[in-house]
Amino acid sequence: xxxxxxxxxxxxxxxxxxxxxxxxxxxxxxxxxxxxxxxxxxxxxxxxxxxxxxxxxxxxxxxxxxxxxxxxxxxxxxxxxxxxxxxxxxxxxxxxxxxxxxxxxxxxxxxxxxxxxxxxxxxxxxxxxxxxxxxxxxxxxxxxxxxxxxxxxxxxxxxxxxxxxxxxxxxxxxxxxxxxxxxxxxxxxxxxxxxxxx
Amino acid sequence: xxxxxxxxxxxxxxxxxxxxxxxxxxxxxxxxxxxxxxxxxxxxxxxxxxxxxxxxxxxxxxxxxxxxxxxxxxxxxxxxxxxxxxxxxxxxxxxxxxxxxxxxxxxxxxxxxxxxxxxxxxxxxxxxxxxxxxxxxxxxxxxxxxxxxxxxxxxxxxxxxxxxxxxxxxxxxxxxxxxxxxxxxxxxxxxxxxxxxxxxxxx
Amino acid sequence: xxxxxxxxxxxxxxxxxxxxxxxxxxxxxxxxxxxxxxxxxxxxxxxxxxxxxxxxxxxxxxxxxxxxxxxxxxxxxxxxxxxxxxxxxxxxxxxxxxxxxxxxxxxxxxxxxxxxxxxxxxxxxxxxxxxxxxxxxxxxxxxxxxxxxxxxxxxxxxxxxxxxxxxxxxxxxxxxxxxxxxxxxxxxxxxxxxxxxxxxxxxxxxxxxxxxxxxxxxxxxxxxxxxxxxxxxxxxxxxxxxxxxxxxxxxxxxxxxxxxxxxxxxxxxxxxxxxxxxxxxxxxxxxxxxxxxxxxxxxxxxxxxxxxxxxxxxxxxxxxxxxxxxxxxxxxxxxxxxxxxxxxxxxxxxxxxxxxxxxxxxxxxxxxxxxxxxxxxxxxxxxxx
Lengths: 198, 203, 385
Hints:
heterotrimer; A: 198 residues; alpha/beta; 4 helices; 19% helix; B: alpha/beta; 6 strands; elongated; disordered N terminus
């Protein structure tokens, strides 16, 4: 039978403690704690990601039990793909962020599915969207896109269909900017700007 | 005087039942004046009993349009509005529309949502599994033309690139009233098809 | 009540069907067109008799590039996409996106807009949970819950239509507040709706929660421990059903949630009944929050903060975490100094719940598969994005 329960108030954010812990533990893995960030962020070489994730899993001091996501970001100027791993805890509001950058032509990262099984789908998604290869993934099949010509959909080089320009007769009407409708409510406070200023 | 009914002896001398106050229990009040109904202006009133004269195509079409069974096939946001139309507030049953989970016994496919390349194969398969005669309603901007997702390469710009569509219902998502209007338009179309003999020619 | 193999501590190969009789494994396909998969989810199930031995979820049938389109549109247009990600509770995704954007821009949100956001988000949570009730009732085998759930959902949608102009996908929140002012009778309309919602929750509970048949069907089925749920990445009601009171509204107190007094319902076993019951109890708490927010909401005041005329996202990134009806909804927003967002990542709880089906389904009866899918409350728009 389910019951209602007042939760214990969250523990104080232990930002400084985690920073110290991270700088100690990730030193052997060439990890660098990034300064002045809202969360604890560690930059790592891609080869050590699996070991770092395993460390977070095994170590009881860290106390991070949830893997939130594996996000890819494409930086075409550097010809690199950044992978961001967000870890969260069950009973505290802190976040631990691992960042790594892989070159676009050799996008090989070790998979962290051995220590974090839920990473399986996140990595497969990054595989589809950024063509990253996760070495050691147990089921490296396409997840969202099943056709080869669509692979790498979120790379900046992958174009979208052209957006047709709005015809001039819709854009301007009698010299005034065209609105689909005019706001009819009287008590519109003039702070901020209207809905279609861009 | 005695009358023999079906197993019941009616005795007219039997005392009338009274209430405790001594008033008759059953009031023999005169019936309210009957309103004379106008003769019905429908198919039955025009024909002799048990005889209908019409083209068989029209008769079948009339039967088909009165009980359209759409395939239970919701893809995206529009499916929520479609389910809302089936439910009590909008009550799709009024139009003979009953959702059906199998394509084998369905008449209509309401494509409610975005069709992408992966889903197009399934949509095509389901359409081919449906027996003739069958119709398709493209519900929502996505099924009509790709909707707000048309720039993305994986999205098909309208389900009519995959299967033939009879009625387009615009909106993102369309209100339930719009979907009901789509069904009414489809009913009109089915009757018009029968008048033109489309199905006869197709065969 | 019949015993469940997982409960009995047996593995699938120990069951009599696998050892005493010569059986053959059968692979069956479920979906993407299936009335009980809550959208276009496909499952490839391997069954041995009545027991599922392996389940492979297949998604991508609704992948429509929400994240890619977010990169090609200006930031003011993005809420349209956020709505369509989780179409059952559109306000929550908009809310998360706006929190991330306001963190990036460091914009203050006026008091009245904050209260309006909380009220709308909680009402949307109610609408989403009514939808869960409707579909879960149908999955169990009752038809009436569907009608009950949708009736109240329609009432809430009518209120949303009065406020935003749209029934389902609203596009109402904007950076720094709301896109439009609230209608003058907003508070009265919400206050008038709350008794109806409370009455409806009671009716819904009376209909199936205490029903002997319903409990026999759901209690003890597909139990889940806290460790296992965390290992699968599950959050929200799925995690709370296992007995841990983790709610981001309390844990992070984002927006103005620290001002409200509400309980966090938890379950015990993490079985199907607890997952259902936690959501039903959460609905009562949402009504409590809305009632308190109506009391505290100022009648007068701006609905939008000071926002620059042309929104250029500053360089940098922001990560917002909100409690959606399905769990932790996180939005990772990267700006590069342009009017368009450089990267928008929606970490959806339903995506993780769908991936967890791979571990939840093996060992269960085939007849329970529909219930287990229903209890995760997946929304395919959010899974595939």
